[in-house]
Amino acid sequence: ITYGDWSSDVCSSDLLATASDAAAITALVNSAYRGDSSRAGWTTEADLLGGQRVDSGSIVEILAAPDSVILLHEQDGAPVASVHLHRTGEDCYLGMLAIKPTLQRGGLGRQMIETAERWAVTHWGSGAMHMTVLVQRPELIAWYERRGYVRTGERKPFPYGDERHGLPQRDDLEFDVLRKDLD
Question: Does the pLDDT at position 183 exceed 90?
Answer without folding.
Answer: no
